[in-house]
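Narrative progress, year one. The postdoctoral researcher (J.K.) led the effort to move from monomer predictions toward full complexes, under supervision of the PI. The following entry was the first complex the group processed end to end, covering 1008 residues in total.
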Amino acid sequence: MIRSRRVRRVVNALAAVVVSAALLGVLGLGYGTIPALGPVLDPARGAWTSASGGQPVTSQTLALPGLAAPATVSFTAQGLASISAGSEHDLFLALGYVHARFRLSEMDLERRLGEGRLAQLGGPSDLASDKFELRLGLLRTAQAEWARTTGLARAALVAYAQGVNDDIAQVRAAGDWPAVFALTGAYPAPWTPVDSLVIQGVLTQELDYTTGALDDAVLAKSLGTARMLDWFPLIAKNAQTPYDTGPYIKEPLTPIAPDAASSASLSETSQTSSTTQTSKTSTVPGVTPTRSADNGSEAEAAESLLAQLSQLPAGQVHQYPDSNAWAANGAAVGGGGAVLGGDPHLPQTLPSVWYEVALSAPGYQVSGVSVPGLPGILLGHNAHIAWSLTDTQNSATFYYAERVRGDSYYWRGAWRPMTVAHYSIPVRGGATVRLAVDITAHGPIMTQAGQTMAVDWMGNVPSGDLPALLAVNTATDFAQFRAALAGWHAPTQNFVFADSTGNIGAISAGYYPQVAAGCQPWLPMSGSGACDITGVIPFNAVPQVYDPPSHLIATDNQRPVTAAYPYYIGTTADFYDPGYRAAHAYSALAAGEPLTAASIAALQNNLTDGLAVRVLPSLVSALRSASLTSAQRSAADLLGSWQGAMDEDSAAASLWWTFWGDYLNGVFEPWWQAGKVPVGKDPLDLKVGPGQASLDEDLEAWTLHDQSNAAFAGPSGHGPATASAAMVAAFRQAVTHLSDVLGGSPWSWTWGRLHSRSFPSVTGADGLGYGPRAAGGDPFTEDAADGGLNARTGPSWRMVVSFVPGAAPSAEGVYPGGQSENPASPWYDNLVPLWWDGQYLPVPVPGSVAGPVEWRLHE
Amino acid sequence: MNRRSVYRRSVYRRFMDRRFMDRRMAKRLGCFVLVAVVVAAGAYAGAWFVPFVAGLAAGVASKRLGFPSVPAAALAAVAGWAVPLWVMALRGLPAGATARTIAGLAGLPPHAAVTVVVTLLLAALQVFAGAWLARALLPRRLTGRAINE
């Protein structure tokens, strides 16, 4: 009895010791991905202290080491900032401080993403992203860029980093870290200029890294090369409205910068290759190749790489072409002068990718939106010019199938050693992972499944984006603007321009890589050397226009040139927009009254689906003669009086969108099934749907001009024989779909019941985003909504700048979000309602006091 | 002994009992406040483990003196950790929104109450663990005589 009691006591004591030790261990040190909850949830320390960052901003005096002279930062009631400093050095230092003060978590997340350090924060689930980024090489490229950066850009990056580090030092001293750091225990390292260049690289990747060639390889294997080439052609089958209609010039290619990714300095390189630059300096003139060849044996590697990419967080690979930038002048503008409208469409997150600010220093007066992590203004205006950007969408990602033997690869007739970069990836809650990246003359090897495949991506060519941007910020006319952009390599962007003397222009600056005639850059190419990039389109010959006779320029991601353009710039599978927004914009800009800032703003918020406007007459005509049930007939009546507006309260909009999806599926899905297209490898880019621009263009063209195309009959030959029959079948199916999902009568099927927008938190945390909220729009409306029925991509910033002769420029803008990243701050999402209602705020004027709250900065 | 004297004695006893009770209550209340203050001060100093130490003390006290002091210590620790949150709210800091943010980032339901409850539960949990440890490791009967011996 006594012994049994003793045993019980010993067991009890042991259990108490073990439980107490475990509890204190977990609370003090954490376990796996569980943070050290003791210090994290200490109510006077830890994550709770992030509350101080959520307080309303008040006037104060702040000491910033490194400032040469006092500077001021003032804020409007909505949080829009205006920074004034005595020199450019102090200006960029203050900008770095302000960015970090409001966006430190976002900046740290972005650099972690680019540098392959997300798993250190988020654990094993982020390992796939880290491996991909380290393979691709944003960090290697940023290091190479930094080594070559000189002059104002170098000084700006150094001053900016100092400002960021001033904030980090303040936060460290006060202990009030943003919650994400306190929760993970992974606090931000000091900021460096390379970090800023990595963030530039992340933006480049999101806008420029594509998988078109991989998708084409998979589709060629599944559908057959001829059908793939027919359905995903070089030139779209439908009507397009390029902004540069020619005449075009043909000049010898420009050599690519002699420091592509393969030759970028590798800080952790164990083995170097001296052969990696040769292919990049060739000056062989390029010839536009014709598109005809077999799919090769790379499909398996393509599928493997696509499967890898589909595991990455949304937005890391370029997906949606949705931006708008327009300019008008002369007779097209009310009162003369010029007007510019810009709304880049990007993943919409909280906080936003943008931070709105006016910058003022002697010789540097500019305002607009900046990117936290980078000095300068990316889209905005100064006293003389205004500019905005859309993505050009050209082909800038080439894949090469390499012959590999051990540590060597075969290139230009000889076996050569691969460069190897070694990385250690720290993983929160797990063991550090080692990664070795093999690099050939073409670039890093991305997969070895089935076939060793390397990628030659223009984003890995060190690019003078920052010097170009800083020069654009201070340009006073188109000549200076254009000259500044000569050094811009990637991502290729359509820079749209207007100035105070009433001129407008556009230039699609960046690298357009070319290969030898006979090569097929739309598919993975041989790595033997025969299809290496031979150069890029000369700057004089890239798409551009200045003061066009129409007085209008619209760049909405459509193919910027006609079929007569003498260089290869990509296929319809390169995410060129199908052109509905551009056509609608040209039509709307040219119609009616002379343009004003208000009419540009109205166009930015327009919800007309250009594809619906084109196809609707054919659909209504087909339905008129079809045998329909009463429910189908009343649904058809809705379309009869509809003008194509994807309004939230429109039932016809639901019908149209569901019909179009069913129409695409009805025509193409039988072919996909017969060819066993491995949609699961990359659902976003391989699945039949409205997101496949090439298929939208094909079906539109066949519907309007080729009603009996063989595609309608399907692979069995027993499908609907004509477009009309296929449309009627799809319409019936759409009515059935909507009846099942929404019930009731057709007039109650409003678009807002099906369609919404969401602005998720960049941290991915549920409940810290905005929405989903019922919304109008679709991918083909000027106010685009992309990414599915719960859209997460759309206008990330709307801006209108007017130049009236004899007056200062007038600029207004708004973005969906807020200036602060702290969800507890009143400036977290305060701009969302304004954006949602189509309202704008005046963009702060450089040098002015933005509002009553002011920070006085001194050393 | 007449009825009056009996009555007086009864009243006196009750009076004395109440004084005794009041003193005991005051002592307990004092202990409660002391623990709460120490726990709060520990939180401000970054010593998140003070509730565990309080639990150890409560365990010793309960075993040695037979006081039902562990639940009271847990309550005191909860009160102590609630003080900084209360002060935060009094200073106008967005404590509720911050709690919601922490819950969201931690992958919990994004409600302020979740973080507040989890935070205060951590204090109570530490007290119970500390008390258990103390009671399990101390000799079974720790009387005054045993100590003197």
